[in-house]
Amino acid sequence: MGINFLSFGSALPEGVVTNDDLSHMVETNDEWIYTRTGIKQRHVAITENTVSLGIYAAEKAINKAGIDKNEIDLVVCATITPDTSFPSTAGMVRQNIGLRDIPALDVCGVACAGFIYAASVAQGLMTTGSYKTALVIGAETLSKITDWSDRSSCILFGDGAGAAILRKGDGNGIITYELDGINDVDEYLICRYPESESPFYKGEHVEYTKMKMNGNKVFTFGINSVISGVTEMLSRSGLTSDDIKWIVPHQANYRIISSAAHRLNIPVEKFYVNIDHVGNTSSASIPIALDEMTDKGLVQKGDKIILVGFGGGLAAGSMLIEL
Ligand code: ACO
């Protein structure tokens, strides 16, 4: 008995911001952005929000799975950009697509490792609880926490959502996973809530609410996370990279992916890359990639795939799955 991925779905907002568009907002250019990151464009919400993107991705995943939406008995959504503190993004998706009165919860604060954390939470609940079919989502509108005047970070991020249907049944599904948490958070990446407006608050004055990032530190952390995640999944399963059809890394920077591939001695062609047209969509990046891959016919039933995510939190996660 395993927890299997039945299908994937994704949604990108209609707005597209090219590198040339950014060059009119901050001092940068297409050549710098593309050679340093691999990004050509990113999608940004114009009318969409985190919930609406989550809904579109979820509906696509439900349709592709060919299941009745009433079969879903659990929703888990990863996000660092919820529209509301409560209800949860998962709860809003549940209501808007007309699911039954089932548990729906968000996995917050683990940023670009979010989808792997959310799938692991769903797997745990499905294994020990009575849940048979889960909707797992990663949904973000990073554009609302991006500092659009900071050229070293605003060039990276995009909005979007990805989703998967997980079902308990025959098949290996999620073979193994590893979740990691790392300290030194303030040094790398942080996005603060606004200052407390409580009349009783006498604590620290918080000046910023947008995302702050030390790109160089995150860069090294990203390479190390991909290397350790892939190595751990292979050693734990006794498989070699030849047994793995694809590695789907979080799409943060093409140079992170190619450096990790080089140091792992695995051809970079085995790493799925779509960062050129999507940018870094945090928790949505891995399920968006998986949905693209299934739509393109790049994956078949029985394929083994390693997923690796890393980012704010600091959090990292890797997962070995068999479709
Ligand atoms: N255009 C032109 N020049 C720029 C830009 C830009 N957009 N951004 C920075 N520069 C300049 C810098 O000012 C610096 O100039 P200087 O040498 O005169 O001081 C020079 O380019 C080099 O800057 P670096 O920061 O060293 O450039 P680097 O090659 O490291 O690339 C980048 C920066 C792209 C941010 C890289 O560090 C990176 O991708 N880091 C990882 C980010 C990441 O993965 N984040 C994921 C987590 S996000 C999350 O969890 C929500």
Keywords, separated by commas or semicolons:
323 residues; alpha/beta; Peroxisomal Thiolase, Chain A, domain 1; 2 domains; five-stranded mixed beta sheet; four-stranded mixed beta sheet; 11 helices; 34% helix; binds acetyl coenzyme *A
Short description:
This protein is of the alpha/beta class and 323 residues long. It has helices at 19-23, 30-37, 50-65, 89-96, 114-128, 151-154, 185-188, 215-237, 254-264, 275-278, 285-295, and strands at 2-11, 15-18, 41-44, 74-79, 104-108, 133-140, 160-169, 174-181, 189-190, 212-213, 246-249, 304-311, 315-322.
Structure description:
The structure is a single chain. The chain has helices at residues 19-23, 30-37, 50-65, 89-96, 114-128, 151-154, 185-188, 215-237, 254-264, 275-278, 285-295; strands at residues 2-11, 15-18, 41-44, 74-79, 104-108, 133-140, 160-169, 174-181, 189-190, 212-213, 246-249, 304-311, 315-322. The protein is α/β, with parallel strands linked by helices. It is 34% helix and 24% strand. The protein is built from 11 helices and 13 strands. It has 2 domains: 2-170, 3-Layer(aba) Sandwich (Peroxisomal Thiolase, Chain A, domain 1); 176-322, 3-Layer(aba) Sandwich (Peroxisomal Thiolase, Chain A, domain 1). The chain has a 5-stranded mixed sheet, sandwiched between helices. The mean pLDDT is 95. The structure holds acetyl coenzyme *A (ACO). Residues 28, 32-33, 36-37, 111-112, 151-152, 155-156, 189, 213, 215-216, 218-219, 222, 252-253, 280, 282, 311-312 line the site of acetyl coenzyme *A.
